[in-house]
Amino acid sequence: MLKKLLTAFVLLASLAGTAFAQTAPDAFVRQISNDVIEAAKSDKTVQAGDINRIIGLVDTKVMPNVNFEAMTRSAVGPQWRTATPEQRSKLQAEFKILLVRVYAGALTQIRDQTVEVTKTLPVSGGTQVVVQSEVRGKGDPIKLDYRLDKVDAGWKIIDVNVGGIWLVTSYRSQFAQEISSGGLDGLVAKLAERNKSSAGK
Fold first, then answer.
1. 128-136 and 154-162: which strand pairing?
2. DSSP state for residue 191 in the 8-state scheme
3. Which label site among 68, 76, 112, 150 has the fewest CB atoms less than 10 Å from its CB?
């Protein structure tokens, strides 16, 4: 499951670049994911694990296409409504660092994978869609679902599902435990501690 999650993060990270933001969601997933996978495969510094190079790649190409406020709000859950503007800002900042490092680590796993979009399903009552796809390489295909939301700037990534587990939902359960024991400030502190520890490795 860890390998599958890492691969999911790779493919989530591959949904980058604004050139395709205004296209259909299935084309967005197909075109961008294939482009970035090929770029990562051909970049020797990425394959060698140069963390600064990888973080820079993720931060410039991936993050502009992620709706961090929506992701953070969903991961924090009901307590988001009571958070102060300062707490919200800190939560988004630390959550972004956490995800950037997760994606950066996953990018080094790319070898012979390709992605095939299989279906696009509208989410009732809103502007969201779920794009279903498969990561194909050696071994069995890995089924991935991407939840995208349409905003003025185009499509934005708000969640990814692998093996029946939504990324944001997974973090929500972890965050709920931290909030229960230390409140929102405690969650911010834990995320900052985790990010600082990861940066030192």
1. unpaired
2. H
3. 112
8 Å CB contact between 38 and 112 = no
185 φ/ψ angles, rounded to the nearest 5 degrees: -65, -35
Both tokens assigned to 137: 């390489």
Write down all domains in the chain, each with its CATH number in brackets. 2-199 (3.10.450.710)
124-170 pLDDT tens trace = 888 899 999 887 877 788 788 889 998 887 888 898 887 778 888 88
Sheet holding 142-151, edge to edge: 114-122, 128-136, 142-151, 154-162, 165-166
Q: Cα dist. 90→71, 110, 196 in Å?
A: 14, 31, 14
| Beta pairing partners, 12 | none
Would you say residue 73 has pLDDT above 60? Answer: yes
* Residue with tokens 């990018």, as numbered in its chain: 107
Note the Cα 195 to chain centre separation in Å: 16
- The count of other CB atoms within 10 Å of the CB of residue 85 is 7
DSSP state of 66: B
Would you say 129 and 148 are in contact if contact means Cβ atoms under 8 Å apart? yes
